């Protein structure tokens, strides 16, 4: 369907139009290769959030970590929009022990006060896009860095920075992850199927959202999301040699922790976007088991790394499209698990 139909009824204190606002906010969340591995259901009083692992890239995410991260990010957007509409989102994670795909149930029965930060974060949903191009050398201020750490803690995760002396080790790990992945024909085939998509594709990464083509002078090994059709960068606009990198981490593994990490990731991204800071991901560090183990050692050994971010001041970049709400929601009942 080309247009999003209105749901058949209200959800709790939210009317039909508000329900669609909430769902459109949810599907604006980031996901690995813009795979959008989620489904939603509505009942008379709640939104239901489901993981859809079959939509995710299976070679680079065989354990569904990225699926649950994406669902956590979508859940955070959903919660924020419900709150922004003056309703308290009462969340139960994994409400059905027999169905691991049932990520959350969000009841919408009680009114709530809307705080200014919620309004800022909701406004940032439309501003947040993955920025795969060179960033400026301007430093992210210490006050904002502290605010980003607080944002992660609010969602029961930790945001770990990397001291300058660790950057060379990270560069080596990124290069090793890239080499190992691209030596696997199955990975290369999957990568090509998700990247370099035509503009306006409802999923995957279009070439218009990719960064410029990698060049020989790049200090970091970069992924080419353009399918080989990326633009040649402007003279003097190389990628930063010492990027501001952060790792979202948890103390435990598993779907519950990954959903929390996804919510933390999205709260960090929105808090950054609200102050004009853009972000991209170094997912390959997590996707390759050997480099993920080394990354865990770098951040102290106790925490489990879930996602690595590159943050800084970039600019405007085209938004990647999303599937229509009608394609991911079962109005009037829980989605199939």
Description:
Helix content is 35%, strand content 18%. A hairpin with an 8-residue loop joins strand 3 (87-93) and strand 4. It has a five-stranded mixed sheet with strand order 3-4-2-1-11. It is globular and about 55 Å long. The chain folds into two domains: 16-129 and 320-330, NADH Oxidase (3-Layer(aba) Sandwich); 142-312, 3-Layer(aba) Sandwich (NADH Oxidase), CATH 3.40.109. The longest helix is centred in the N-terminal third of the chain and has 20 residues, at 65-84. By secondary structure, it is α+β, with helices and mostly antiparallel strands.
Summarize the structure.
The chain has 337 residues and is α+β, with helices and mostly antiparallel strands.
Mean pLDDT: 91
Secondary structure: helix percent:
25-40%
Q: Give the name of the CATH architecture of the largest domain.
A: 3-Layer(aba) Sandwich
The beta-strand count equals: 11
Q: How many H/I helices? A: 10
User: Main β-sheet, in a few words?
Assistant: 5 strands, mixed
Strand neighbour order, sheet with most strands: 3-4-2-1-11
Q: Termini distance?
A: 22 Å
Shape, principal axes of CA atoms: globular
SSE arrangement, N to C = HEEHEEHHEHHEEEHEHHEHE
Q: What is the H level of CATH, i.e. the homologous superfamily of the largest domain?
A: NADH Oxidase
Which range does the strand content fall in?
15-25%
The low-pLDDT segments are 1-6
Task: State the secondary-structure class.
Answer: alpha+beta
Write the CATH fold name of the largest domain: NADH Oxidase
Q: What is the highest CATH level, the class of the largest domain? A: Alpha Beta
Radius of gyration, in Å, reads 19 Å
Total individual domains: 2
Protein name: Nitroreductase
GO molecular function, one term: oxidoreductase activity
